[in-house]
Amino acid sequence: MEAKRQELHELIDQLPDEEAHAARRYLEYLRDRGLPGLSELLGTAEEDEALTAEGRRRLEEGLDDVRAGRTLSDQEARRELGW
User: Fold this and answer.
1) How many Cα neighbours within 13 Å face the side chain of 80?
2) By the 8 A CB rule, do 65 and 28 touch?
3) What is the CA angle 24-38-63, rounded to 5?
4) How far apart are CA 66 and CA 55, in angstroms?
5) How many domains does the chain have?
6) In this predicted model, what pLDDT tens digit does every residue of 29-77 receive, in sequence order?
7) Which candidate among 9, 27, 37, 41 keeps its CA 20 to 30 Å from the CA of 56?
């Protein structure tokens, strides 16, 4: 397993700078594609009932964004917010 990871590191090091963002997004997708669904995150029905329909919709929307790679790194978010 370590040899395969080393090969990946070497491939990443060989990428042109303009491809780094796309490679990162794809690797994040591979990492995150097994994210739990809404029901797994919420747990019991009692917890589910405490969440409004709007809250459930927003949570699902956020999870869809993560699954689709529509996220920002801490650095990107701070840069956009001017922090």
Assistant:
1) 7
2) no
3) 25
4) 17
5) 1
6) 777 777 666 566 666 555 546 678 888 888 888 888 888 888 888 888 8
7) 27
